[in-house]
Amino acid sequence: MKNIVILGAPGSGKGTISSFLVKNYSFQQISTGDLLREISNSTSELSSRIQAIISKGELVPDSIVAEMLEAKIIEFVQNGAKGLIFDGYPRTFAQTEMLDEIVAKQNLSITNVLELDISLKDLETRILNRYSCASCGEIYNYISKPTKINNICDKCGSHNLIKRNDDKKEVLEQRYKTYEQNIAKIKEYYSQRNLYQKIDATLTVQEIQNKVKDIIEL
Ligand code: AMP
Questions:
Q1: What is the spatial distance between Cα 54 and Cα 34, in angstroms, rounded to a whole number?
Q2: pTM of the model
Q3: What is the pLDDT of residue 46?
Q4: Who is most buried in 140, 168, 186, 204, counting CB within 10 A?
Q5: More confident residue, 96 or 10
Q6: How do strand 2-8 and strand 83-87 relate by DSSP bridges?
Q7: 53 falls in which pLDDT band (50, 70, 90)?
């Protein structure tokens, strides 16, 4: 079973690559950002705490994220998943080691680690124009991928198109800084295990997909 970690600053295209692998190769995607947003929109005790952390672009404590992640992995494994994609996890060195431990409990291991590499300047152009469908999650961009019909989701027809609360310049800069601070040790960990490959995130979606297919040998 192939279990792939996709690393990359916020907006580097992790979600797009994950969707491609899910749609074409039956992977199951685990996005810790999506899982945390789900909790933050609920009425649980934790929700306002998580909401505050996400809106500042900071990281949610490791213990909360690990518990949530493990539950999701168990769910997918029990449902016969063919492969897992970790989108947005790990984000710290502690999480990197934790991920190995969590997957090992299910007799799994990480098989590939891809990093989508992009500068802060390129990211700003991309993210500040990003929006998505609140109903089906499809991601759009005012410049590079607008909806075909104004304000209607191409995929599901919903009118509920939204911008994420944390897609703002100051928050983006904070999230990029957090990413840069943590990535070096994560990269080193996976490079030592011969799992790490860097991909230029400014290539076209098609080019990135081809590289991903080659690397993962699909
Ligand atoms: P994302 O959708 O992956 O950009 O995540 C959105 C926000 O959720 C991040 O800015 C963090 O506040 C939080 N988050 C997502 N994944 C993690 C993680 N692995 N560890 C801690 N916080 C996370």
A1: 11
A2: 0.85
A3: 86
A4: 186
A5: 96
A6: parallel
A7: very high
For residue 149, the 8-state DSSP code is: B
Mutate which of 5, 7, 36 for ligand 1 pocket (most atoms within 8 A of beta carbon) = 36
| Residue that the structure tokens 């213990």 belong to | 63
- The position carrying tokens 């304000």 is 151
Written as one letter, the residue type at 6 is I
Please tell me the distance from the alpha carbon of residue 116 to that of residue 197, in angstroms, as a whole number.
9
Q: How many CB atoms lie within 10 A of CB 23?
A: 9
Q: Any alpha helices (H) in the chain, and if so which ranges?
A: 14-25, 32-40, 47-56, 62-78, 93-105, 120-127, 169-192, 205-216
User: Among 42-46, 61-65, 145-149, 150-154, where is mean pLDDT lowest?
Assistant: 42-46
Take atom 3 of ligand 1 and give the residue whose Cα is closest.
33
Q: Label residue 67 exposed, middle or buried (CB < 10 Å: 0-12, 13-18, 19+).
A: exposed
What residues are in contact with ligand 1 under a 6 Å CB criterion?
Answer: 10, 32-33, 36, 53-54, 57-60, 65, 88-89, 91, 95, 166, 175
Strand order, beta sheet including 2-8: 28-31, 83-87, 2-8, 112-117, 196-200
Per mean pLDDT, which of 34-38, 135-139, 186-190 is the most reliable? 186-190
Cα–Cα distance, 19 to 52 (Å, whole number): 28
Distance CA(50)–CA(213), nearest Å, equals 35
Q: Cα(71)–Cα(155) distance, rounded to whole angstroms?
A: 29
The residue whose C-alpha atom lies closest to atom 1 belonging to ligand 1 is 33
- Over residues 95-120, the pLDDT tens digits come to 999 999 999 999 999 999 999 999 99
